[in-house]
Amino acid sequence: MFVSFFPRPRLFFLSAVLWTALAMTLWYGYANTLVGSSAPEGGPPAVGVATFWTAQALWFDFYFAVCVALFAAPWMVLSPHPWAWWSILGSALILFTTYFQVQVNVAINGWFGPFYDLIQAAVSRSRPITSEEFYGHLLTFAGIALVGVFIGALARFFVSHYIFRWRTAMNDFYIANWPRLRTIEGASQRVQEDTMRFATTVEGLGGNLIEAMLTLIAFLPVLVKLSSNVTELPLVGAIPYPLVFAAVIWSVFGTGLLALIGIKLPGIEFFNQKVEAAYRKELVLGEDDAARADPPTASDLFSHIRHNYFRLYFHFMYFNIGRIVYLQVDAIVGYVLLAPTIIAGKITLGPMNQILRAFTQVRSSFQYLVNAWSTIVELISIYKRLRAFEAKIHDEPLPSIESEIEPATL
User: Fold this and answer.
1) The pairing of beta strand 237-238 with beta strand 232-233
2) CA 363 to CA 244: how far, in whole Å?
3) Which of 51, 67, 77, 125 is 20 to 30 A from 98, alpha carbon to alpha carbon?
4) Distance between CA 302 and CA 298 in Å, rounded?
5) 42 pLDDT more than 50
6) Residue 21 CB: number of other CB atoms within 10 A?
7) HEC string of the chain?
8) Of the spans 60-74, 176-190, 241-255, which averages the highest pLDDT?
9) Residue 105 zone, left/alpha/beta (φ > 0; ψ -120 to 50; rest)
10) Are 76 and 84 in contact (CB under 8 A)?
11) How far apart are CA 325 and CA 313, in angstroms?
């Protein structure tokens, strides 16, 4: 799954994590101070597309490129791999575009403050607002959004090719070992379908995880700065950094809740693929052999599919009840936490919207597992299926789930 695309995967990923930690420590501890901030001296931070080409923004882009080059060069020289350009430099490009799209969100959050203060001034008639001023703010947003759309579209185009290259690497690796793998149940489906699903799902989950971490890094300081007027929480009272504390506790609660109630889903999803593969294989054999796929056999195989899907529907039912209830409460939790501050009149409309948006970004980052749990269930199932290939290639015993019989009851 990984060795076909990445050079020496375990060492590669460990070194990537350590190098990233070192690069980030150097950046936040020293390098980012070498160039001035994005804010004009004595003034507020830049708002609009100008935030993307300030001296500090361009300095970070250069710093990132140098770090990638210093990491990639030794791997390409000391451990050459046919897919290194895609697996190393391609992954770095995906990481950078993810970072850039997070910065688009930060720029939009910066735009929210002055725009909603403008709205408040207009509706309260505290000062005159001109049409040019109003539409100027909308044009500023349009500029930020246009940059985000352009980069996002190019990133998705590249990711599509990246995923197919990874699938190609796995396909070539498994086909080279096909004589040993062909006897595994559903081998053709695992090579043809599961390789693509695995590459797509891992890239999606990995990209979302990186985005969540970068969003957390970008928005935590913003939330701390914006919430300086928020000193207490309902029921809890006054505590340091109340919104950050609330975001962590609420997100950890949701993650634990859904992990607990969804614990059976990966195994059921695995059996789903197993019974589907058995039914598909019988039908394919029946195309060339009249003795195969007779009605009793086909009906019996389909009954296993029906039984397993009904089990899956049942377990997903209570999982979705818990998930939907949590997410519905999640939609208003920010307002509940700000209630004492809003009622006391300590905050205006602009900062309130900035705080709510920053809080949502931080909370969503902590809720990575909540938002991705259904996809994680699917990935675990795919991994279990491809893991049998890995065991066969290395002459190891097949995973125990391969020989398990699906439960007869819900």
Assistant:
1) antiparallel
2) 9
3) 77
4) 6
5) no
6) 10
7) CCCCCCCCHHHHHHHHHHHHHHHHHHHHHCHHHCCCCCCCCCCCCCCCHHHHHCHHHHHHHHHHHHHHHHHHHHHHHHCCCCCHHHHHHHHHHHHHHHHHHHHHHHHHHHHHHHHHHHHHHHHHCCCCCCHHHHHHHHHHHHHHHHHHHHHHHHHHHHHHHHHHHHHHHHHHHHHHCHHHHCCCCCHHHHHHHHHHHHHHHHHHHHHHHHHHHHHHHHHHHHHHHHHHHCCEECCCEECCCHHHHHHHHHHHHHHHHHHHHCCCHHHHHHHHHHHHHHHHHHHHHHHHCCCCCCHHHHHHHHHHHHHHHHHHHHHHHHHHHHHHHHHHHHHHHHHHHHHHHHHCCCCCHHHHHHHHHHHHHHHHHHCHHHHHHHHHHHHHHHHHHHHHHHHHHCCCCCCHHHHCCCCCCC
8) 60-74
9) alpha
10) yes
11) 18
| Region of residue 38 (phi > 0: left; psi between -120 and 50: alpha; otherwise: beta) | alpha
pTM, two decimals, is: 0.69
Quick check: 93 pLDDT over 90?
yes
CB 242 within 8 Å of CB 231: yes
Contact indicator for 101, 149 with CB cutoff of 8 Å: no
pLDDT in tens, 159-184: 888 888 888 888 888 888 888 777 77
